[in-house]
Each structure stands twice: as C-alpha cells, then as structure tokens.
UniProtKB/TrEMBL annotation:
It is a multi-pass membrane protein. GO terms for cellular component: plasma membrane. The keyword Membrane applies. CDD domains: TM_PBP2. The chain crosses the membrane at residues 12-32, 60-86, 98-120, 126-145, 175-201, 221-240. InterPro entries: MetI-like, MetI-like_sf. This is NitT/TauT family transport system permease protein. It comes from Pseudacidovorax intermedius. Keywords: Cell membrane, Membrane, Transmembrane, Transmembrane helix, Transport. Belongs to the binding-protein-dependent transport system permease family.
Length: 256
C-alpha cells in the first residue's frame, strides 16, 4: 500500500494535467463548434487510432525501429566521442569545434542529402535522428567525466592506479547521471529525427501517415498518428528513466 501511494503521488499530477488538457480540448471543440478538418475531437482521434482503414501497427513498427536505431546510434557515438574529449585535451581541442559545426547544421536541409546518398528506407531516417540527438550526449558525457571531485582522482593516484583504471572505476561511474540525463533528451530528439526523415521522403511510417492524411484532409487520422508518435516517445523515455533509476539511483533520489 505504501508503494501504491507513492506511485499515485508521483504520477497523479501528470495524469491530472493530461486529463485536464483532453477535457479542455473537448470543451473547445464543442463550445466553438470547430469543424473536424480543423480540429477533431478527442473521441474522433481515438476512433481513428483504432480504425482498420490504416495499418497502424505496420506504420508504428517502422517508426519504432527508426526511433530505436537513431537513439542507439546517437547514444553510442555520443558517449564514445565524449569519452575521447575527456581522455585527451588535444582531441578535445580538435573535435569540439567540428562537433559544434555539425550540430549547427540545419537537419531538415541535410535530410534530402541522406536520402539521395542512401536511398529510401529505414537507415537514412535513423541517421537523421542520430544526428539530431547525439550532441547532448557528447557534451554531458565529457562534463560528467571531467567535473569530478579531485580527491577521488588523487586517491586513485595514491594507490598508483593507471589513468585507464581511474577513468574506468572513478570517472565513468561519476558520469552516469550526466549521460543518462542526456539520453532522456536524446530519446525525444530521436523521435523528431525519425519523423523529419519520414516527412522528407518515405512510403511507410507514422510520419508518412501524417503527410498523406493531411493531403486528404483526414485530420483525425493525422492527430491519431501524432498520438502514436507521442506514445512511442513516452515509452522510450520511460525505458531510459528506468535505466537511470537502476544505474544511478542516487541521482534520481536527488532529482526527486
């Protein structure tokens, strides 16, 4: 019962805000008599989400694979680059300006180039999502590895621990909260990147559904696709949050 009360206290405000938003949405549609092609009611969106006219599971599966692939690529490359920056000041001076340059590039403009180089399919959408989401992981990893209590580093030196061992045993555990915090941001960025890729050119996926339904003025289906996208993003974010509580519970306790 105690855990149940804790869970309710933790999640009830978020659920309340969501329910309140849906009620206000329904109220606005009813009071102002907004036409469905402009703003469908929550009931119409829910009906579209379970409609058999669109193969939702097939499109959601494609988008989920793209999002997960983008997240894994962004996380792995970001952690490795952040470790390289923290390991060597020379590498930091060489890599940081280039990474900032890449991050400032407009991703929507790069997406057609990826599609031209790699063709249609899941891979270019993964790469676009990874490109959008990797930079926060790089920066947070580097900060977590360098912003550390100097006494801990000195303790390792007292015991004649080599640099790699200090890095592995002291610096990396210290960076867990920073990395996991960045991965939460990347979980949402990967969703954006995958959908951007599907908007540019695709024949499957939830982004493709949005484009096709907008052209036919099927606004409830477009909103339904947005809800499915949000659910995928929430699921990935929840998985990262669970991993964060597992690997760095002390950080989660401080945040809570």
């Amino acid at each position: 019962m105690h855990r149940l009360r804790q869970a309710l206290a933790h999640y009830l405000p978020a659920v309340g805000i969501f329910v309140g938003f849906v009620l206000l949405w329904q109220l606005a549609v009813s009071v102002f008599d907004i036409r469905e092609y402009l703003l469908p009611s929550p009931g119409a969106v829910l009906q579209a989400m379970v409609s058999q006219e669109i193969p939702w599971l097939q499109h959601a599966w494609i988008t989920a694979v793209e999002i997960l692939g983008a997240f894994v690529l962004a996380g792995a490359s970001g952690v490795l680059l952040g470790m390289a920056i923290a390991w060597s000041p020379g590498l930091s001076r060489a890599l940081t300006p280039f990474l900032v340059f890449v991050n400032t590039l407009p991703k929507v403009a790069i997406a057609p180039l990826f599609l031209m180089w790699l063709g249609y399919g899941i891979l270019p959408n993964m790469l676009i999502g990874a490109l959008i989401g990797f930079f926060p992981v790089v920066i947070n990893t580097a900060v977590g590895l360098t912003q550390i209590d100097q006494d801990l580093v000195d303790l390792g030196r007292v015991f004649s621990a080599p640099k790699w061992k200090v890095f592995l045993k002291i610096r990396i555990p210290n960076a867990y909260p920073y990395i996991l915090s960045a991965l939460k941001v990347t979980a949402t960025s990967a969703v954006v990147g995958a959908i951007v890729g599907e908007f540019v050119a695709s024949q499957k996926g939830l982004g493709y559904v949005i484009i096709t339904t907008q052209s036919s003025m099927n606004t409830p289906a477009a909103f339904a696709a947005l809800v499915w996208i949000s659910l995928l993003g929430l699921l990935l974010y929840g998985l990262v949050a669970g991993l964060s509580r597992l690997l760095a519970p002390w950080a989660e306790d401080r945040a809570g």
